[in-house]
Amino acid sequence: MDLRARPYRSVLYIPGSKERALEKARALPIDAIIFDLEDAVAPGEKTAARETLAEALSRPYGNRTRIVRINGFDTEWGEADARAAAAMDCDAILLPKVETTAQLDVLAALTDKPLWAMMETPMGMMNAGQIAAHPRLQGMVMGTNDLAKDLNSRFRADRLPMLTGLGLCVLAAKAHGVTIVDGVYNAFKDDEGLQAECVQGRDLGMDGKTLIHPAQVEIANAAFAPGTDEIDLARRQIDAFEEAAKAGQGVAVVDGKIVENLHVETARKMLAKAEAIAALAE
Ligand SMILES: CC(C)(COP(=O)(O)OP(=O)(O)OC[C@H]1O[C@@H](n2cnc3c(N)ncnc32)[C@H](O)[C@@H]1OP(=O)(O)O)[C@@H](O)C(=O)NCCC(=O)NCCSC(=O)C[C@H](O)C(=O)O
Ligand SMILES: [Mg+2]
């Protein structure tokens, strides 16, 4: 399956140095994993974490998408991480703090694997369109902690300071057919706050949410999956439009609202997403 066709409702970060967490993830109902060598790993553990992670990835993670986040090329670990990740049994490599396509070119020269980009600096936001257009890029991950740091913004439940950056990246990703996953919700015991942020991200057009703790998985999976009412409506829209087309009409009406070919396209995408989610559970 093309990586971009897979579901990304729940994308769990796991520190590459934490053996217990690396084991636990094999049984979690997550759509994808970001195996982290960057911020979640202390400087003194970076080299050992590469070995720990390579060993963990040599054993199965089921049908979860496996993404390795390396350190940036402006650090002493970046290049060795990239070479090590290129040899690991993973699906993609994620580069932090991407601001230019030149940074992706450096990584592309070191691996044939699909590339993902952390979008988490003001310059990254400004260049989101060019970054999303990189021919090897398949996914973007919002880094809202780093973005808040650079913006010197305050945490707000409505994420007002983030909205311009989130919107620019969603536009860039959609324009170039790239997956986009929202930033983490740090307060991992606050289910209500997480739920609200998942709904906001979903409504903005995000494909899913990055998570830091297993307790967050269920909420993200539910928020980013099509609901039974949405699936039912999608089926009825498709049926009604096909009936209308047979009668030579270009528009149908369902529940008092018009249905045109563009709505049918959305409905078909939703059903395909529901099928991809169901296939993950098989
Ligand atoms: C936040 C944590 C440090 C909390 O860890 P801990 O105190 O161990 O939590 P619990 O005791 O509640 O854990 C219960 C069990 O769950 C396992 N666990 C915990 N976290 C994970 C995980 N992420 N993946 C898999 N399994 C996990 C524990 O091992 C316990 O298992 P068991 O003993 O068998 O019951 C911790 O959750 C953590 O380290 N989270 C990840 C933090 C991280 O990766 N941060 C970096 C990414 S965020 C970021 O950088 C975003 C971006 O760049 C930006 O700028 O915004
Ligand atoms: Mg970051």
From TrEMBL:
Signal peptide: none
Transmembrane in keyword set: no
Residues where Mg(2+) binds: E120, D146
Enzyme class at the top of the EC tree: hydrolase
Domain HpcH/HpaI aldolase/citrate lyase: 9-214
Domain of life: Bacteria
Family per record: Belongs to the HpcH/HpaI aldolase family.
Protein name: (3S)-malyl-CoA thioesterase
Organism, as annotated: Antarctobacter heliothermus
